[in-house]
Amino acid sequence: MTHASSRFPAEWEPQSAVLIAWPHAGTDWAPRLAEVETTYVALAAAITRFQPLLVCVADAALQAHARDRLAAAGVDLARVRFLQVEYDDTWLRDSGPITLREGEGFRLLDFCFTAWGGKFEASRDDRLVEHLHAQGVFGTAARERIEFALEGGAIETDGAGTLLTTWRCLHERHPGATREQLTTRLAAWLRQERVLWLDHGALEGDDTDAHIDTLARFAPDDAIVFQACDDAADSHYADLKAMAEEIAALRTRDGRPYRLFPLPWARPILDEGRRLAASYANYLIVNGAVLMPAYGDPADARAAEVLAAAHPGREIVPVPCRPLIWQNGSLHCITMQLPEGLL
Q1: Which residues contact 249 (CB under 8 A, 6 or more apart)?
Q2: Three-state SS string across 121-170, please?
Q3: Which PANTHER family does the UniProt entry name for this protein (predicted)?
């Protein structure tokens, strides 16, 4: 099922803005709020160098606080727009809209958000797109509610009809559905001609049941950037090696192997003995740049080189993400890009 006038754009296509939600004391960030705010300030500073930023805030007091933090950091506030709306948490990749280009306009796909299979309270996050749409944030774009649990971090598109996802995540959300059924549904909703599945790859300290955006990402001109592991003593080694072999076996629509860009492996980061998921694949593409999660690890510099090779012509901007992975996600997970023309 294809819609000739409807298309799911790749992340590297021109954007109008990035959407985030500011952490506050009512979110799971509360115990380390000051620490995680440093990441949000750095992220906002990086995004606004290249394009506008939409910041969800819970109320006027949080808006004033966030504005003060951003102003103190020298962020260009002319490129920041605050949106007052309720939310449970700040993982906008998963609770935000998935935007299709439809003719001259746009369609916002509003899938069920269940906090990764009911792991956390998510009723306000599940209505985030509805509330922002009702405020007129997305102009004349149509909103389509889809009663099916799917997170933006679980899917990756090349903008040309190919979707990449993981069986582990989709099977976890929909255990009664076959791969063929899921392929058909995803292809129809997301206007894809084919769906590629990975059976291997998962990170310790990841709540999402193996979201693709922690593992493998499309890049322009038939390329795939993926998280590799070269430490044979690491618990991830066998699974990520199997994933690398799966990716190497994938073919483009015209039957060629993808150009592959393996990312380096950061040394284990532990929090009170718990392994955190320090993936370099969880980067965000914006207009003219790639914002890269940095973990204060020697591998940061090598990761930047790989991303520069995979995304030529874009500046690579590191954003400190150690505070984020304490809550089991990283840079891409807290952002959602909006295509050019939507706002």
Answers
A1: none
A2: CCHHHHCHHHHHHHCCCCCCCEEEEEEEECCHHHEEECCCCEEEEEHHHH
A3: AGMATINE DEIMINASE-RELATED (PTHR31377)
Question: Which positions are annotated as active-site residues?
Answer: 333
Expressed as residue numbers, the domain containing 32 is 6-339
Residue 329 lies in a domain: yes
Q: Is residue 186 part of a domain?
A: yes
Distance (Å) of CA 257 to CA 214, 225, 252, 253: 22, 13, 6, 10
Closest CA to 141 of 172, 183, 175, 97: 97
Q: For the segment 106-164, what is each residue's pLDDT rounded down to a tens digit?
A: 999 999 999 889 899 899 999 999 999 999 999 999 999 999 999 999 999 999 999 99
The helix (run of H) or strand (run of E) holding residue 320 is strand 315-320
User: What is the dihedral sign for C-alpha 214, 198, 306, 270?
Assistant: positive
Residue corresponding to tokens 């591998």: 299
- Please give the Cα distance from 113 to 150 (Å, whole number): 7
Residue 231 has pLDDT above 60, yes or no: yes
CATH number at residue 242: 3.75.10.10
Residues 6 or more apart from 60 whose CB is under 8 A from it? 84
The number of domains in the chain is 1
Tell me the sheet residues that pair with 56: 21, 83
- Name the residue type at position 334: I
